[in-house]
Design brief:
Layout (H helix, E strand, L loop, with lengths): L1 E5 L5 H16 L6 H22 L4 E7 L2 E11 L2 E9 L8 H16 L3 E6 L4 H7 L3 E6 L2 E6 L13
Helix pairs in contact: 1-2
Length: about 160
């Protein structure tokens, strides 16, 4: 069973591990020691965490759990005119099992029920971009190496079932 719970200070090391797992492939060819790579990833994680805390005050920062085991993170800000998917990441053992797709689909339904788009910033060459496109996200604006994508609201039945 997949559940979300608010991230707590004691989750920091687990959340760092999730973040590190998303950077492992790009750091593989870098000629640094494991200690240097770990220090770099921690520095980047700390910077991202500070940026999210500063720019997304009031957002929900959650730990994704699968059968009670921490499996990833999900960060969402609910704005008046949009739902912003700030970040979603899963540990490698939990990827490609439909978990991320299901969490995003739930956000699509939530945003649609409010009549607002679901938006996300994604790096231009991030492989997850294909998932977002498959789920109906379209590019709206380019911001340097990031692309703002949005999923427009769809028709939602009273029971909350997608009918697009």
């Amino acid at each position: 069973m997949v559940t979300l719970r608010p991230a707590r200070p004691e989750d920091r090391e687990q959340l760092l591990a999730v973040y590190a797992s998303t950077r492992a492939e790009e750091l593989t060819p870098v000629p640094w020691t494991e200690e240097q790579k770990s220090a770099f990833v921690k520095m980047q994680f700390d910077a991202q965490d500070a940026d999210y805390s500063r720019n997304y005050v009031g957002a929900d920062f959650s730990v994704v759990e699968v059968d009670g085991t921490p499996a990833g993170r999900l960060s969402v800000e609910r704005r008046p005119a949009e739902v912003r998917l700030i970040d979603i990441a899963l540990l490698p053992a939990f990827r490609r099992a439909g978990i991320g797709t299901r969490l995003i689909e739930e956000l699509i339904v939530e945003a649609s029920s409010r009549g607002v788009p679901l938006t996300i910033h994604v790096e231009l060459f991030n492989p997850a971009r294909r998932l977002y496109e498959r789920l109906g996200f379209v590019p709206v604006e380019e911001h340097g190496v990031h692309l703002l994508m949005e999923r427009r609201p769809m028709a939602v039945e009273a029971a909350g079932v997608r009918v697009s």
